[in-house]
Amino acid sequence: MSSSRGTSRGGIAGQKLRAKIVLIGDGGVGKTALRRAYLGEGFKTEYLMTIGADFASKDVTVYYPETKETYDLKLQIWDLAGQPRFKAVRDLYYRGAIGALCFFDITNQESYMNLVEWIQSFWNLNGHGKQSLIIVGAKCDLRDNPAFPAQVSAHYGKEYAAELTKMLKHKYGFTVHYLETSAKDDINVEEAFKLLALEIISSYYFQEKKRNDRKTSQKKMITDQIRSK
Ligand SMILES: Nc1nc2c(ncn2[C@@H]2O[C@H](COP(=O)(O)OP(=O)(O)OP(=O)(O)O)[C@@H](O)[C@H]2O)c(=O)[nH]1
Ligand SMILES: [Mg+2]
Questions:
Q1: Strands (E), the chain
Q2: Has residue 10 got a pLDDT over 60?
Q3: Ligand 1 pocket check: which of 49, 105, 141, 145 to mutate, most ligand atoms within 8 Å of Cβ?
Q4: How far apart are CA 134 and CA 57, in angstroms?
Q5: CB within 10 Å: which end of the chain, N or C, has fewer?
Q6: Among the atoms of ligand 1, which is closest to the Cα of residue 46?
Q7: CB-based contacts of 133, cutoff 8 Å, min separation 6
Q8: Mapping DSSP to helix (H, G, I), strand (E, B) and coil, where does residue 110 land?
Q9: What is the whole-number distance in angstroms between the Cα of residue 141 and the centre of ligand 1?
Q10: Is 221 exposed, middle or buried (0-12, 13-18, 19+ CB in 10 A)?
Q11: 139 in ligand 1 pocket by Cβ < 6 Å?
Q12: Residue 165 belongs to domain spanning
């Protein structure tokens, strides 16, 4: 996360923060539809695959209960092409991202199975797990629709998010949430982006505290050494 100089308030509250995030997941799972819905651009029924990547930016304000402060973030949203042919170009966009919305389509089991690979490539190119993640089960307006019988139940989404949280929270200080969204019916659209922003803030403070604890213990070590001479 980068910031311009802010006010005299503590931490990063009151500063203008920029956060690069990426939207990842198989082609056709609904990344662009969610991004468009978030920006108030409406819903399109036809599928127009993203070529390479699309960019959008939106300001978001989140309240972080731990510090009892609100934070203004400019989300720099990179909506990446999911089709395999774009792999080489897509990889270039991961760098510098501090969060990801990781999509699968609840009516497409393969897209759920492929999530592991998506997250793995993101980690390989960018920070090995330091970045906040949200698991997004997209197209939830189609839940229990008999025309789409091969559905991924919410249980699997929650379970995967819980597993990732267990692995990452103690190291990097964020929770991986599972959210079901619909760009078509405007369900959890705003929430998905806000929750990611909140976990980015949470992770920032966790890492800041770790840095401070390290400094304090180094200072103590030096003081102890001087005293014992
Ligand atoms: N019913 C329903 N259909 C959706 C929803 N979101 C997306 N779709 C449809 O799914 C198709 C693919 O959506 P996109 O958002 O373009 O998928 P994408 O993940 O951006 O695909 P790539 O750009 O190829 O990676 C389109 O036909 C959309 O209309 C949703 O919430 N509900
Ligand atoms: Mg797209």
A1: 2-3, 16-24, 53-64, 69-80, 99-105, 132-138, 177-181
A2: no
A3: 49
A4: 18
A5: C
A6: 27
A7: 99, 100, 101, 102, 119, 164, 168, 174, 176
A8: helix
A9: 12
A10: exposed
A11: yes
A12: 2-228
100 by DSSP, 3-state: which? Answer: strand
Is there an atom of ligand 1 within 6 Å of 82 CB?
yes
pLDDT digits (tens, 9 = 90+) for 135-161: 999 999 999 999 999 999 999 999 999
Q: Is 47 in the pocket of ligand 1 (CB under 6 A)?
A: yes
Within 13 Å and on the Cβ side, how many CA atoms surround 189?
22
Mutate to test the pocket of ligand 1, among 26, 47, 101, 145 (most ligand atoms within 8 A of CB): 47
CATH number for position 47: 3.40.50.300
State pLDDT tens for residues 30-76.
999 999 999 999 999 999 999 999 999 999 999 999 999 999 999 99
